Amino acid sequence: MSFTVLQVLPALQSGGVERGALEIAEAILAAGGRALVASAGGRLVPALEAMGATHITLPLDAKWRIAGNATLLARVIREHSVDIVHARSRAPAWSALLAARRTGARFVTTWHGTYSENFPGKRLYNSVMARGERVIAISRFIEGHVLARHPWVAQRLRLVPRGADTALFDPAAVPPDRVAAMRAGWGGEGPFVLLPARLSRWKGQSVLIEALGRLGRPATAVLLGDGRAAYREELVAQAAAAGADVVFPGHVSDMPAALLAADLVVHASTQAEAFGRSVIEGQAMGRIVLAADLGGPRETVEDGRTGFLTPAGDAPALAAALRRALDMPPEARAAMGRAAREAVVTRFSKTAMQNATLAVYRELL
Fold it and tell me: What band does 230 get if pLDDT is binned at 50, 70 and 90?
């Protein structure tokens, strides 16, 4: 059956939302459909177009253009005979909802975050993500969050956990020279403790730096990701004061090699993560992941068997968990890594996520 899906999001730079859009575009094409993505553009556009999908550049990163973007999206829907509009972010979702109503296209949303309600009217603004004919929750944590705020959506809510590409994120698929080059580029003293996340205060880079200062042994924090220069300078100063070794590689495209080059992977977010894709990608690479004990990672890390959970924001507890992991005999660490990968392959694969999303689309076609 031929069908056309238009995914809508602010931009295609990097991150779990953006990569999820590419993975679903891939699934649509494999199922014989046409895959369109509308955004303001970004570094992932070439990859999207290389797979055979179509990118349509619209100013969807401008929240103040909701009405204007609705008109533009309605035009796209009509020109391309779009069957389903799938929105992944709030401001573009309002535009997409208006456009779908004008054109008769079906409307799907994916609820990717907890979305704060810290000023009047914010719950109404957020509620667009609950207005889809089908609403996808990316974790049980998000499913509960949505139902607590919008219980009337229960019959339309579908749980579709995020997934790792277990063919791409496979230790056997990464040549040793890529791993060696990655470690050489970091340049610090091992073991390497990798935190792959954009440089943002709530992602917990400062918690990891404090933990390394308490570790009592050499180790290098690899803070992988882009972010504000001012925050990076804060982290540099904190590391100097704590006597912690820290490197900032910036954005890295070869994430499988980066994860395999790390001795441990850390998720240190101080706010609940909707899912935490970096956690399952690290696990898929057979790495022990130490994750904050809140939000999505509670569903993907089995404490003591596939990784370790520590209280969010608790640097002493993280330091203790780092010591525990580093003190494990090599064979025990490898066994935990194998158990982590097996759990991802079984429960959190990209293929399972793609198939479940296509099943949601089929409910509306």
Answer: very high
